[in-house]
User: Which sequence fits this backbone?
């Protein structure tokens, strides 16, 4: 929305200054919750199919790497965009189901909820990727570092594009778009390898490192913008 229009709307519908807000909040008896308790509570709210889907992707990649006895790096790296879907879908979950304004009135702010879920799923996916790297390295001519970068680049590209899409679109259409992005990056990863396999030569690895740094910075920026967008939704209670 245009910034000038936002300012006009804020001026027209500005809420009155709350009276004795601090005194009212002090009278509300709420048991204290530590940061660890809050994070554990958010783990329980992440949908079960997210964990199941991540486990399925991990299992398929692991079985392929362990039993096919072939260079599975490019097949496993093609699964990374699908793994990234867990972060994208959870980041826009409230908007998708029209629950953002409701969650803004809960005990923990929507900003903290989104930040916690992004952190939980990001850490879980990082653990899975770290576990897959040694198996992807098997029967491959690349080093451990190269293997890690080749796997992380499509993952970060998917998260970057997915978070951007969820900020620009609202509702279930964003979820379908993100799924399309993940499938597109996954298919493109395989196609790019078979079409431009010389770009994976060791002397071109510096470009992969540069792409990794740029994608990591861009993904972090999109995460911050996603969290900032939740702040813009907040009502002056």
Assistant:
């Amino acid at each position: 929305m245009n910034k000038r229009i936002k300012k006009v709307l804020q001026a027209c519908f500005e809420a009155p200054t709350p009276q004795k807000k601090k005194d009212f909040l002090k009278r509300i008896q709420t048991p204290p919750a530590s940061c660890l308790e809050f994070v554990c509570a958010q783990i329980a709210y992440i949908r079960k199919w997210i964990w199941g889907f991540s486990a399925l992707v991990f299992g398929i990649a692991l079985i392929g790497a362990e039993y096919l006895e072939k260079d599975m790096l490019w097949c496993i790296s093609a699964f990374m965009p699908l793994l990234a879907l867990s972060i994208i879908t959870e980041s826009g979950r409230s908007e998708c189901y029209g629950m953002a304004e409701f969650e803004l009135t809960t005990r923990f702010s929507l900003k903290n909820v989104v930040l916690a879920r992004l952190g939980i799923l990001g850490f879980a996916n990082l653990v899975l990727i770290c576990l897959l790297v040694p198996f992807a390295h098997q029967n491959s001519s690349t080093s451990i570092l190269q293997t890690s970068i080749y796997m992380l680049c499509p993952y970060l590209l998917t998260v970057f594009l997915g978070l951007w899409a969820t900020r620009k679109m609202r509702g279930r259409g964003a979820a379908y778009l993100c799924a399309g992005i993940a499938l597109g990056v996954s298919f493109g990863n395989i196609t790019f390898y078979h079409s431009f396999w010389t770009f994976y030569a060791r002397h071109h690895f510096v470009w992969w490192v540069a792409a990794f740094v740029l994608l990591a910075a861009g993904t972090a920026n999109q995460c911050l913008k996603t969290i900032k967008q939740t702040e813009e939704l907040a009502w002056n209670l």
